Amino acid sequence: MRGDGFLYMAVKLSTSIGQYSHQGRKNDNQDHHGVVVPNEPALTTKGIAVAIADGISSSDVSHIASQTSINSFLEDYYCTSETWSVQTAAKHVLQASNSWLFAQNQRNHEFRLNKDKGYVCTFTALIFKSNTAYLFHVGDARVVRLSSSNASESSKVLTQQHRHWLSGNKSYLARALGVTQPLEVDYSELGLDVGNIFLLATDGVYEHVSDIVMREIVESNAGDLNLAAQKIVEQAFDNGSDDNLTVQIVRVDSLPSGEPTEFLQRLNDLPFPPELSARMKFDGYQVIRDLHKSSRSHVLLALDLETQQKVVIKSPSTEGRQSADYVERFLMEEWIANRLNNAHVVKSYRPTKRRGYCYVVTEFVDGQTLDQWMVDNPSPSLDQVRSIVEQVAIGLQAFHRQEMLHQDLRPNNIMIDSSGTVKIIDFGSAFVAGVEETKTTAMPTVMPGTAQFLAPEYFLGEFGTKRSDIYSLACITYHMLCGRSPYGTAVARALTRSAQHRLVYQSALDPHRQLPVWIDLTLKKALHADPLKRHSELSEFLQDLRRPNSKFVEQSRLPLLERDPVRFWQGVSAVLAATVIGLLSQMLTF
Question: Are residues 509 and 580 in the same domain?
Answer without folding.
Answer: no
